[in-house]
Amino acid sequence: MKILLIGATGMVGSRIAAEAVNRGHTVTGVTRSGASGTQAAAADDASAVAALATGKDAVVLAIAPPRDGSEPSAPLLAAGQGVLDGARKAGVRRVVIVGGAGSLEVAPGVRLVDTPEFPDMYKNEALAQGDLLEFVRENAGDLSWTYISPAAVIAPGTRTGSYRVGGDELLSDDEGNSFISAEDYAVALVDELEKGTSIGRRIGVAN
């Protein structure tokens, strides 16, 4: 499989790249700066995305919202629009998005981001990722998309190759912990790329 990976040097993106390459896939990494041997392009530039996506089998968007104190929703939605339009122009139907956990439900109609315990410092980022999910749901019906939310906590760790898959509900263990290693998140994402079992919906993954 030939994969265009936008955001290839981040904590999650770098692990997706490594997991995919280790399985024999070809990964073209993209960053805004073109650092570390990646292609330079902005995710919100549909023409640039299309040029890089041409001939690929899938596009993966693995960028985080801006964390510079600015309002993060508009830039993230612009990136989502650029990737969807770029994929269409390139004739690529498969799009997988690295999402956030904040929009997962902890009770019917209650999102994690709306709970009193949710850290204020991450709230705007979580809301932006939730906005991107709704944007994709409303605008990507012609594409084979999947939005993959991690557990409440995702961090570098061990690749076990084992994970659980859910839907719109936050996955937790018997003690209420919700965690996935970035390595196992990458396993789950590449599994979804290969198998395509969750087309047109959001899934959540956790250890």
UniProtKB/TrEMBL annotation:
Protein name: NAD(P)-binding domain-containing protein
InterPro entries registered for this protein in UniProt: NAD(P)-bd_dom (IPR016040), NAD(P)-bd_dom_sf (IPR036291), Polyketide_Oxido-like (IPR051606)
GO molecular-function terms, A-Z: oxidoreductase activity, acting on the CH-NH group of donors, NAD or NADP as acceptor
Pfam hit, one: NAD_binding_10
Gene3D superfamilies hit by this protein: NAD(P)-binding Rossmann-like Domain
Residue intervals of the NAD(P)-binding domain: 7-194
Domain of life where this protein originates: Bacteria
